[in-house]
Amino acid sequence: MIAEKIQNLKNEALSQILKAKSEDELEETRIAYLGRKGQISQILKKIPSLDREERAQAGKIANEAKEAIENALKRAQKQTPAEKKKIEEWFDISAPGIRPPLGHLHLVSQAIEEITAIFAKIGFTRVRYPEVEWDFNAFESLNMQGDQPARDDFETFYIDVPPHQKWGRMLLTPHTSSGQVREMKAHKPPIRMINIGKCYRPNYGVSHTPMFHQFEGLLINKGVHIGHLKGTFDYFAKEFFGPKRKIRLRPFNFPFTEPSFEVDITCGICLGKGCRVCKEGWVELGGAGMVHPVVLKHGGIDSKKYTGYAFGWGVERVMMMKSGLKLPDLRLMYSNDLRFLNQF
Ligand code: PHE
Question: How far is the CA of 303 from the centre of ligand 1 (A)?
Fold first, then answer.
């Protein structure tokens, strides 16, 4: 213990001597370590009271330290200013550099970039719409009136302000579908939107965080049909998950699409054969369907002339499905634990 302490003091003193800029500073260092009350001198005083074995070892190290410091002081005192400068400026160009730690984009940002690029290739433009929304855009315009049971599936954080006369209550958007009517009002068809943003629902668990991300596709044009929707999903599945994956549509119900589907993709582990993880070969990607005429009407689009499809899938969800076991708990995404984040 004491030996270690002496070594540390010695190193401290030597580095101070190297850095000293004047005679005064050298003298200060001498006093601090070797002066009558200096740190090394204090230790030397304690040595006689140690037990025999420790005494011999500590004495030797303390004397060596004292000598090393004295020599360094002498050398430093003899240095001319020119010599000192040379030492300070000495630079070993062959010494390996110190790499600054390099960060990278968060997993979710990486996924968002990838999804954006995949859809950009087939003409979709990435947009973002408000996270703090009106009831009208989040529900009413999507054919979900206030008392409709379907709204219970979209549990919502409401904001405690008086409701807007026209747009209703203020809330944190529970899905990216809130961007559908906003997009229709902002642009005339053809519309090819990919709206990627944060969504909020009061759920917390292994596969739920109260804040999560969705990507919402919306395509509106003349003659759009389910074949287009299916083709787009096939394309996305192959680009994002790899060439071996297949998708299927299952009938479902959403008030804002008709017909509506749940989209499944073959399991990444067994590729559709059925395994312990997926049971029957398929895992669920998310919802989709043909845009309901009521929604088109709210967006000011003539449903006799135009049709469209929409889908809304979870960014974290598709990430988890892609990286499999590396992501056993969704909450890890937002725990800021570098041990987790550095894996990606
Ligand atoms: N908004 C739906 C959800 O959050 C998903 C969806 C989007 C379904 C678009 C159909 C069309 O679950």
Answer: 20
The answer to whether residues 256 and 292 touch, using CB atoms and an 8 Å cutoff, is yes
Mutate to test the pocket of ligand 1, among 129, 137, 175 (most ligand atoms within 8 A of CB): 175
Predicted confidence (pLDDT) per residue in 91-105, tens digit: 788 888 888 888 899
Q: What is the pLDDT of residue 326?
A: 59
Residues flanking ligand 1, CB < 6 Å: 175, 177, 216, 254, 257, 286-289, 310-312
The vertex-301 CA angle with 134 and 220, nearest 5°, equals 95
Which residue has the CA at smallest separation from atom 2 of ligand 1? 312
The lowest-confidence range among 11-15, 53-57, 83-87, 153-157 is: 83-87
Is the CB of residue 196 less than 8 Å from the CB of residue 315? Answer: yes
Nearest CA to ligand 1 atom 10: 288
pLDDT tens string 251-299: 999 999 999 999 999 887 788 888 877 788 898 889 999 999 999 999 9
Residue 129 dihedral angles phi and psi, to the nearest 5°: -125, 165
Torsion of CA 125, 307, 293, 201, to 10 degrees: -30
CA of 288 to the centre of ligand 1 (A): 6
What is the DSSP-derived secondary structure letter of residue 105?
Answer: -
**Kind plus residue range of the DSSP H or E element containing 198:** strand 191-200
Predicted structure pTM score? 0.72
CA distance 294 to 284: 27
